[in-house]
Amino acid sequence: MARFSFLKLIRDQRSELPSIDELKKNLTGKTIIVVGANTGLGLEAARHFATMNPGRLILACRTAKTAEEAVQDIKTTTGCQTVEYWTLDLTSFASVSAFATRFEKEGGGKLDILVENAGIATNVYRATPDGYESSIQTNHLSTALLSLLLLPYLSKTPNSRVTIVTSEVHFFVSRLIEADSPKILDRLNEKEYSTSKVMAERYNVSKLLNVFYGRALAERLPAGTSISVDLVTPGICHSKISRNLHGSQKVVLGLLKFFLARTTEVGSRTLVHAALAGDQETMQGKYLNKCNVEEVSDYVISEEGRVVQDRLWDETVGILREKDGRVESVVRELLRSG
Ligand SMILES: NC(=O)c1ccc[n+]([C@@H]2O[C@H](COP(=O)([O-])OP(=O)(O)OC[C@H]3O[C@@H](n4cnc5c(N)ncnc54)[C@H](OP(=O)(O)O)[C@@H]3O)[C@@H](O)[C@H]2O)c1
After folding, report:
1. Does 6-330 carry CATH code 3.40.50.720?
2. What parts of the sequence cross the membrane (predicted)?
3. pLDDT in tens, 10-29
């Protein structure tokens, strides 16, 4: 039984994480993409990768100015010259598609590590230009689209890895009530439904969707695949993640951070561990906390959770195949049915 408890959280936050020297691997010749690497955990994880002699380190960021600053910062602090940024805005499916097209042309044909770190926490409904609630598109739909469009390049590399950054807040969703509606994602995207009470849970729900998606993707990789997919929580860390939260949630998170947060650098080691440690056998579909495999929430592994996971997969792929025709062939050629 895996349950969230405040005592466990305190213990987890106080436990020591491995040093970066213990996590280090030689990344010579390898291509690594870190999504959302201009600040926060993504920036610090990218800085760590930069110390491992990466063949190519791509920071996938939405704002050119902060991305360029991150590149210069990493070059100065690590001496790594193989770091660059590519534009990617997860609030736009067209931007995700353009990123994948650029990778097709300029990526060198193979991808070793994809760290899907970018995310937002908001308790206010905002629609993206594509018409989706912003955290559902950013944290779930576009994250899924990117992983699917890059799967062909990951499949060309031995022991490649997709790491999806989720959170222990997925434990807070004891049941996804939107699953009572015929279409879960449509329900989550409804403006009228997404009242402030509903939006108060939205970040937790979006991180639960990460867990469902990562596990569903891992299960659909065929036997003999070179790809492993894992899920990681960095724990509570200092970063700008609460910038879009309002009211009491911002205050509560601020207090938790004040008393319990890891530094951004320490938290980023969990991403590095998730991206580099173990192999397919030990990491496939696994949820990682404090650089250890742990159980996901009881809901995720319940019978109902199983059904919801499959429904969400079908709905997600159904939406994404309309956004980019390549999704259809990736699912048909590189994945098996669930
Ligand atoms: N910090 C914590 O305590 C904590 C705990 C559990 C899980 N997490 C997870 O850790 C991940 C990283 O968060 P963080 O704490 O480092 O927060 P952060 O400092 O706010 O960084 C978030 C990153 O995501 C990027 N991003 C947001 N929206 C984007 C979009 N539409 N397109 C492309 N990039 C976008 C941001 O870019 P901009 O700067 O341009 O907005 C930034 O680089 C998130 O998935 C979060 O859910 C964090």
Report:
1. yes
2. none
3. 999 999 999 999 999 999 99
Distance 290 CA to ligand 1 centre (A): 19
CA of 20 to the centre of ligand 1 (A): 21
Contacts of 50 (CB under 8 A, 6+ apart): 57, 74, 75, 78, 80, 83
Q: What are the structural domain ranges in the chain?
A: 6-330
| Residues taking part in catalysis | 203, 207
Tokens in use for 196? 């402030």
- Tell me if 90 CB under 6 Å of ligand 1: yes
Distant-in-sequence contacts of 331-334, Cβ < 8 A, 24+ apart: 331/148, 334/151, 334/152, 334/155, 334/221, 334/222
Ligand 1 pocket check for 50: Cβ under 6 Å: no
What is the pTM (predicted TM-score) of this model? Answer: 0.98
**Residues 6+ away with beta carbon under 8 Å from 94:** none
Give the residue ranges of the chain where pLDDT is below 50: none
Extract the tokens encoding 301. 């592994």
